[in-house]
Write a structure and sequence with these properties.
The chain has helices spanning about 5-25, 35-65, 70-95, 100-110, 110-130, 130-140, 140-145, 150-160, 165-185, 185-195. It is an all-alpha fold and about 200 residues long.
Amino acid sequence: MARGETARRTAVGLAMAPALWIGIGLARDGLGANPVEELVHRTGRAALLLLLASLSVSPLGRAWGRPQLRPARRLLGLAALGWAALHAGITALLDLGLDPGAALEELRERPHMAAGAAALALLIPLGATSHGAAMRWLGRRWKALHRMVYVAASLAVLHVGLQGKLGTRQAAPFAAALALLLAVRLPPVRRRLTRR
């Protein structure tokens, strides 16, 4: 099996893993006293983990000399968008009852909701332009647009961190991982990884 195909299959497995995790929780009645809140948390965590996984593909490929890992980046990014959309959808449907007034109030009064909505808003155009035709059509602008993924990831981490004291503690490992993934993109570090 080609290495690129292995990378794709691994990415698909990672993208589907949260569904298994949530499914087991539902089957065992293990979502706690507030299953809606737990579903919101699990889908959000899945989205953020997959987004960070997509950002790790390029540095790992560079460090290991494995450019064939690149197809996994797109799949993981699209999976992150899918889980983020599901996260927002569950919140809108089960938490806010699809009430636009309640949603606007939440965005106004809760900074973590505004940060999460902004992260999703940035991910949508990135997902829509992740295919080859969009790359050709946008040309050099494609790369500039897709650099917004770092802003989206930062907003997603902020979304977790702004949820009170518990949120700050939960956001810490995500923030550390994102800081590392941004650091390895600095030109001196990048050159060193490529040489190795």
